[in-house]
Amino acid sequence: MIGTSGDLSTMLRRCLLTFKPFRIFVVGIGFFSLCFLMTSLGGQFSAKRPGDSPFTVRAEVLGGQESRGVLRKICDMLEVIMKRMDTLSKLGNATDTHRLDELSSALDRIQPMGLVERIQAIAQNMSDMAVRVEQILQHSMASNRVRDGTLGQCGIPKDPRYPDCPSKVDWMRARWTSDPCYAFYGVDGSDCSFLIYLSEVEWFCPPLAWRNQTATPTLKPLPKRQAVFQFDIGTLLEKVGTGKESLSFMKRRIRSLAAQWASAARRLDDELRNRWRDKKRILVHVGFLTEESGDVFSPKVLKGGPLGEMVQWADILTVLHVLGHNVKISVSVKELHGFLGVPPGGGSCPLKGPLPFDLIYTDYHGLQQMKHHMGLSLRKHKCHIRVIDTFGTEPAYNHEEYATRHDYRTNWGYWNLHGQQYMTMFPHTPDNSFMGFVAEELNETEKLNIQRNKVNNMAVVYGKEASMWKLQGKEKFLTILHRHMEIHGTVYYETHRPPEVPAFVKNHGLLPQHELQQLLRKAKLFIGFGFPYEGPAPLEAIANGCIFLQPKFNPPHSSLNHDFFKGKPTSRKVSSQHPYAEQYIGRPHVITIDFNNTEEFDATIREIVRIDVKPFLPYEYTCEGMLERIHAYIQNQDFCSPEVPFAPGSSSRAWPSSPPNPFILLHNSSSLTWAFNTSSYTSWPPLSALRLLASLEGQSCVTACQSAGLICEPALYRFVNIKEAFSALDMQCEGLGSEMNHLFPAFSAEHAECGLQQDPLLFSCAGSSAKYQRLCPCRDYRIGQVALCRDCL
User: Fold this and answer.
1) Neighbour tally for 327: CB within 10 Å
2) In this structure, what is the dihedral angle of CA atoms 23, 27, 33, 39, given to the nearest 10 degrees?
3) Which of 345, 474, 678, 679 gives the lowest tally of CB atoms within 10 Å of its CB?
4) Count of other CB atoms within 10 angstroms of residue 171
5) pLDDT score, position 681
6) In order along the chain (793 residues), what is the average pLDDT of each group of 10 residues?
């Protein structure tokens, strides 16, 4: 083992001066002995800076875990040095011998000192030496290529169609050793290997004329296969896997609803009447359950932690399986690598082959992991991705350049996806797609039994964690509630009753799902304290015949006034704990009041005791509703085919009215629709669903469409982003321009100016300004299924 810096200097100097393979091998043994020594001692080094050379090491005092990681990097660095020196010995370029003398002199600078300081000095000198060896290696290889006559074939092309090629070659010259994936693809430090890589693996340089272009043949698309409904969940349960409590929870949920999924699939199959459905290859990567993301959820499954995400993911897996698609499931980065074909290394290079999936469902954690491991392939294939996003992502936050310029940048957005690639738990953001989940559906006999057995003076509190009971002022309204009802809680605890729960509350502890359901079937009231927001539990309670009582937020909660929403990529203002229940269900099943108004609260509790309600579940949260919705998305949404820009000029002669205009006023309505011949334009939802109207100043298109009993539909924006839309709405444009603005198309009455949208990624139903009336593409919707228009199936 190397004991002193002097021993190390001597051995390295001999190695550099003689270039004898045997001596290199001996020094290699010494190097790895040094690595073993440093790792055993837990030396103190920090990680490299992002901009440093791959060989740069900083000597700082850090914690043990980080130190060990950096020491392993040093060992890897020394191995790279030995490989470079071996390459130099084979080249045998005598003109570079004097340069090697410079390297040995670096070793003389190591002076006797303390052990840790000595190791630090050795590491820094290794870093300097490695960089110099790399320079000599590249110089020697360039000289050899001149002698071999191959340099002429590998001149750096200056092709205007590939403007980034020269800079990418320069980058490769400096950094190709930064990731082993480059060597995996045949990069060896020569310009020829750089150009081959940049033209055949990446796409920054033109194809090389002297290369055999048949080596990378054009891949033919796979033949289409028909999807067939699957009524057995056995194979799905095997794919979900084991080893995490979160996975066990999801499997229990899949089993418990299996019969309902099967019967719903048969009904939808009958409705579709054997219509052709493409069978898709689908990867589901649950990023938040990976160890690499921290997986904070699994340990809390049995301790009252949030289950809403796992409920939704279990239902997503089931709906994709039952619809008959080929589903793969990943809950680790290693599995992700295997499914995608990620080359070995640090993730800088594209995938080894074409993307083996038609669709990838993931979350923000998984999206970040794919960015790290897929390299440029993510940019190429991101149109296939669907992001499960509970609270939604608005276009202003999704557009990286726009978000950066206009202060919409957050911890989550800025991915430059199409807005409808984000899929939410509730239909609160029309700019996104509505994924949803399901609640158990009761038959008529079960509903009657629940109504008969309801205990009118029994209430259950929404809140499994003690922290949810810390609401300021809760004692006041809980005392009022206690006068009229027996209050039950399901708060998790291990040994002692949580002090946050008042003594008059009967706490059952955390209940298994079937026991919780039995409790809800007896209770008359399910009451929320204001948090958590928008979970599945209120819908399950309403489905079991409870009335859901929730607080009204005044002012509404948003990123402007509430910590929970700060950093989330949405400007949405939440008016209550569960806006969907308030807006789409409402009385008598859902009652939203000001909990600070004790008189109103007391009167409401008295009313709840008196009234009877039936169990209710919106169609879109049944198994059939979710199957119908996701089937429509999979078969119709396409973000990979270039969207043909709408060019009104070519069609204007066929438009009615003078001057020609494609819009006509609907009978008994203030909205406009497309005049005729809607089948001439490819669109989903179909153009026949379009209802055009103008918002009020300071009103978003979300609100404007809702006020007319409609839904804002961003997919139809391209048909209203034309100057004729302004004239159809009697807006007189003295000026017409276009810009990147998430509020456009819009009209400024003050200046009589009309603004068109310049970037389709910024078409947005969300957003408002007192300066503008916005042009809003609304649509109708199916009763109980707001995600789909009447003609969308």
Assistant:
1) 24
2) -160
3) 679
4) 15
5) 81
6) 43 40 40 43 38 36 44 53 52 46 46 52 58 52 46 81 95 95 94 94 91 64 92 96 93 96 97 93 97 86 82 97 98 96 92 94 96 92 96 96 94 92 96 97 96 96 90 87 96 88 94 93 97 95 98 95 93 96 97 96 97 97 98 97 65 59 84 80 92 97 96 96 94 94 96 95 97 97 96 92
Per the listing, tokens 């929404």 go with: 462
Structure tokens, 476: 């006041």
Residue whose structure tokens are 């199409």: 418
How far apart, in whole angstroms, are the C-alpha atoms of residue 455 and residue 612?
11
C-alpha closest to that of 2 among 118, 134, 135: 118
Query: Residue ranges of the alpha helices (H) in 232-386?
Result: 234-240, 245-256, 258-272, 308-322, 333-340, 364-374, 377-381
End-to-end Cα, the chain, rounded Å = 74
CA–CA dist 137, 665 (Å, integer): 75
The dihedral through the CA atoms of 267, 269, 275, 277 has a sign that is positive
Q: How wide is the angle at C-alpha 384 spanned by C-alphas 380 and 387, nearest 5°?
A: 115
> Residue 395, Cα to own-chain centre: how many angstroms?
14
**Which of helix, strand or coil describes residue 763?**
coil
Q: Who contacts 582 (Cβ-Cβ below 8 Å, separation ≥6)?
A: 550, 575, 576, 590, 592
Q: Is the dihedral of CA 712, 717, 721, 722 positive or negative?
A: negative
Residue in the block written with tokens 């820009």: 645
Asked whether the beta carbons of 116 and 166 are under 8 A apart, the reply is no
127-136 burial, b at 16+ Cβ within 10 Å, e below that, comes to bbbbebbbeb
Confidence at residue 398, expressed as pLDDT on a 0 to 100 scale: 97
The alpha carbon torsion through 275, 280, 286, 291 (nearest 10 deg) reads: 160
Contact assessment for residue 631 and residue 323, using Cβ atoms and an 8 Å cutoff: yes
Of residues 473, 620, 476, the one with CA closest to residue 539? 620
Which letter, b or e, does each residue of 351-376 get, where b requires 16 or more Cβ atoms within 10 Å of its Cβ?
A: beeebebbbbbbbbbbbbbbeebbbe
Helix count (H) and strand count (E) of the chain?
A: 27, 21
Round to whole Å and give the CA distance between 148 and 121.
41
Nearest to 583 by CA among 463, 703, 424: 703
Tokens of 580: 């969907």
| pLDDT for residue 718 | 94
Of residues 538, 524, 549, 484, the one with CA closest to residue 614: 524
Cα separation, 417 vs 99, whole angstroms:
51
Amino acid identity of residue 508, one-letter, is H
